[in-house]
Each structure stands twice: as C-alpha cells, then as structure tokens.
Amino acid sequence: MRYALNALIVIAMTMSMAFAKSKKSVTVDIQLSPAGSFQAKSTKVKGKVVKKSGKLVAIKLKVSVKSLKTGIDMRDEHLHKRLLDGKNKKIEIVSATGSGGKGSGIIKVKGIEKPFKFTYTEDGKYITAKFNLKLKDFSITDVSYMSVGVEDEVKIVATVPLK
C-alpha cells in the first residue's frame, strides 16, 4: 500500500510528459526515503491543448488511474488502490491556461481539486508541461513499506497534443 502513495504521485502525472515527444504521456517521478525512486507512467492521456487569443488552453485533459504503470505489478495495484476513490477513476486537469512558458490550472485527484502552477515548452505538435504536486493535498499520507517511505512531493511531466 505504501507504493500506492507513489501512485498518487502519478496524479501529478496527470500531465507528466517525459515520454517521446511524438506520443501523449504522463510520467510521475516519485522519490523514496531514505533513498531510491521510481516512476509511474501512462501513454493513455485524453484531451488536448489549443491556442486561443495567444494563450494555451487545456481541453478535457485526463488520464485513467488504471493506466498508470510503475513496472512492478504489486506496486501498480497499491498505487491504483490509493488513487481510486469510488467514482473518481481518472486524474484530470479541470482547467489550465498558459503563455510565455508558464501557466496555472486546477487538477482533480480522488475528487479533490487543487490549484497548481506549471512550466511548459512547445514543440510544434506537442506541449510538454512540468509541475510538482504534494500528495497530502489529495489526502495521501504516510505511505511506506518496510521502513521505506514515499516523499510528499512528486514531479510530473506531461506531453499532450497541440491543436
């Protein structure tokens, strides 16, 4: 179950985009304490970003919790249990806008909406956004297994199409 907290980090993944720039993706970097790390990844990102009046605007960006994978089945299971909250089976960007490489928005994880700030780069067909989230903001706390815990802050990189 401690690894499930790491899955919450995947929440940050909502926009994690560390995969190849030719694909939609979300990558959540999860740090462990006292040492170590792992990533939760998904290429099943839905939605897009459009340009409106010189600003970038996110349209229906979301990722299924079950699509997040860490490379270890048991850790995936724990992550999914931590992130799934009844009817809330997706992590979604409720709203987000940006210009000049910076932006802000609202992310929803486990039914909890929180504001976040991000930086981004444009590469013609794709936008790659980077941001950090705190697990405790989404009621994910005290995640540990055999004296190895998950750090509260996760780093997310998301790559989505620009239309």
Structural description of this entry:
- This protein is mainly beta.
- Helix content is 13%, strand content 52%.
- It is built from two helices and eleven strands; from the N terminus they run H-E-E-E-E-H-E-E-E-E-E-E-E.
- The protein has helices at residues 2-12, 73-83, and strands spanning 25-33, 37-42, 45-52, 55-64, 90-99, 102-109, 112-122, 126-134, 144-145, 148-150, 153-161.
- Strands 1, 2, 3, 4, 5, 6, 7, 8, 9, 10 and 11 form an eleven-stranded antiparallel beta sheet that branches.
- Strand 1 (25-33) and strand 2 (37-42) form a beta hairpin.
- Helix 1 (2-12) crosses helix 2 (73-83).
- The radius of gyration is 15 Å and the shape is elongated.
- The chain starts with a helix and ends with a strand.
Name some characteristics of this structure.
163 residues, mainly beta, 11-stranded antiparallel beta sheet, 11 strands, disordered N terminus
Radius of gyration based on Cα positions:
15 Å
Question: Which sequence of SSEs, written as H and E, runs from N to C?
Answer: HEEEEHEEEEEEE
Class of secondary structure makeup: mainly beta
Shape: elongated
Summarize the biggest pleated sheet. 11 strands, antiparallel
* Fraction in beta strands: over 45%
Low-confidence stretches: 1-22
Number of helices: 2
C-alpha end-to-end distance: 39 Å
**Percentage of residues in helical conformation:** 10-25%
Question: What's the mean pLDDT score?
Answer: 84
Task: Report the strand count.
Answer: 11
